[in-house]
Amino acid sequence: MKELSLNILDIAQNSVKAGASVIKIDLAETEETLEITVTDNGCGMTEEQVSSVMDPFFTTRTTRNVGLGVPLLKMEAEQTGGGISVESSVSEENHGTVIKALFYRNHIDFIPLGDIVSTITALIQGAPDIDWIFTHTKGESAVELDTAEIRAVLGDDVRLDEYEVIKWIEEYLKEGYDSFT
Amino acid sequence: MKSLEELAAIREKMKGKVVLREGSGDIRVVVGMATCGIAAGARPVLNAFVEGVNNEGLAEKVTVSQTGCIGVCQYEPVVEVFEAGKDKVTYVKMTPEKAAEVIEKHLKGGEVVSKYTIAAAVE
Predict the structure, then answer these.
(1) Does residue B66 belong to the interface with chain A, where contact is any CB pair within 8 Å?
(2) How far is CA A98 from CA A15, A18, A25, A43, A50, in A?
(3) For the segment B66-104, what is each residue's pLDDT rounded down to a tens digit?
(4) HSE of A57 in the Cβ direction (CA atoms, 13 Å)?
(5) In chain A, what are the domain boundaries?
(6) Which CATH superfamily is domain A4-178 in?
(7) Model pTM score
(8) Domains defined along chain B, listed by start
(9) Which one of B6, B7, B50 makes the best mutation probe of the A interface by having the most chain A beta carbons within 10 Å?
(10) What is the spatial distance between Cα B45 and Cα B62, in angstroms, rounded to a whole number?
(11) What pairing do the DSSP bridges indicate for beta strands A131-138 and A22-29?
């Protein structure tokens, strides 16, 4: 991938397909590191599936027999000296998955985050009924978005994937990044 | 600064439109957004369709949605166009520039842009 924001788009699509109703994307930066965490309350994976998910030749899809999303993220994290962890549960009370990837930003092989705003708006456009919670923090700076708050204002009449709403979200996030240092 | 009041204004403005749009959406544009599509550049293609459909005033008859892997990864980014009563059209190796042409000629003008279809790519 050319940007880590594309990996985030890809990984979060797995959460959508897992039937999640709430998906959290957290980006936590320090001067040296970037930690990406994607948390969902989807159907979760069994222990066997979790142990296979790093394998590029493991997938639940039927259109082709490779699944490169998680292996790519793992490779990109490890090439900076970081790594990835996957925790998942299929229990009825507490099902879901947490994928965490740590990157060392000063490593020569660190791939830039890129256009995260496009990633967030693409995810909301594609799955407007999900509650998306996005946070990006670095020191004192923070960009935050919770689509449940937006939905509370819009009510049931207007969907999140309406063009005007998507544009509002895009501009809201861009404004947040204007003061992000 | 973007405010929640602006969102409330959007809600009021959209209410009428939403009623109008119910039962419409004659054409469905579906962008493949699996790993293969995303890596090949599907995100800007999706954005180009979302922007273009709105800017050309086609939102009432065209819906843009996303799907997973269509199964022809070597031709990504892949975009399928479904229209009632017509054969599905599969556009391959799409770019935002090609998307603009498809919006203008196909979605607006009703003419399939054959040179970007999978049939042309496999010839």
Answers:
(1) yes
(2) 10, 12, 10, 12, 11
(3) 998 888 999 999 999 999 889 999 999 999 999 999 999
(4) 0
(5) 4-178
(6) Histidine kinase-like ATPase, C-terminal domain (3.30.565.10)
(7) 0.92
(8) 24-122 (3.40.30.10)
(9) B7
(10) 16
(11) parallel
